[in-house]
Amino acid sequence: MNARWVAGVDGCPGGWIAVLLDTSDAHAPRVTVQTRFSDILELPEDPAVIGVDIPIGLPDTLVGHGRACEVAVRRHLGPRQSSVFSIPARAAVMETDYRKACAVAAGHSEPPRRVSKQAFHLFAKIREIDLLLREWSRLQDRVFETHPEVCFLHMNGGKPASLPKKIKSRVNPAGLEERRGLLRAAGFPSDFLDTGRRPPKPAAADDFLDACATAWTARRILDGQAVCYPDLPPRDAFGLEMAIRA
Q: Fewest CB within a 10 Å sphere: which of 62, 91, 123, 219?
């Protein structure tokens, strides 16, 4: 059987961590860290679908508690819903200064909302993918937004993970082990998951697990089994779909 690869990607310090899965199961999964997201598109595996934990599609004005996809998935995540940030309007994401980003976000939201520091730290990576997808529109059928905690929810029969990955910004070993168990039950080899305890630097163990989860969803997208939040996603001013798949 010919190999057909998918990739799951998560941002990490200095770049992106990608887990590659051969959907024919002829080859073992592998992990790599790349400086640029575009480098993942050029890997020899040539992944047919890439699931990435980064917002795609930015509103001109943020109304309420976030994009429709963010609001939709939070309803199912229970104690894990705080992991889904509200991404502000496009104009705010384009700012590189935190104070300016907060001011612009407040002026483009109803009611006025500032930007969380966690969301601001994602802006550079959001801009990187946004520019790529707008420049190469054909990639919109290949690169999809997902979210690890929503992936784990679907791996776990519709129940969110019971333990957090981090407590007060520190890794929670029990939370990571819970997610390893879900990935193992979903078909990831134990030896591969064990190597991810020390993934390629500068990625961390939780980055690796998140990339595995998004790879699981990338395979579901390729197979036509993924769930889309919301069912009929809107598009932004550049035609980018605002949806989270799992």
A: 91
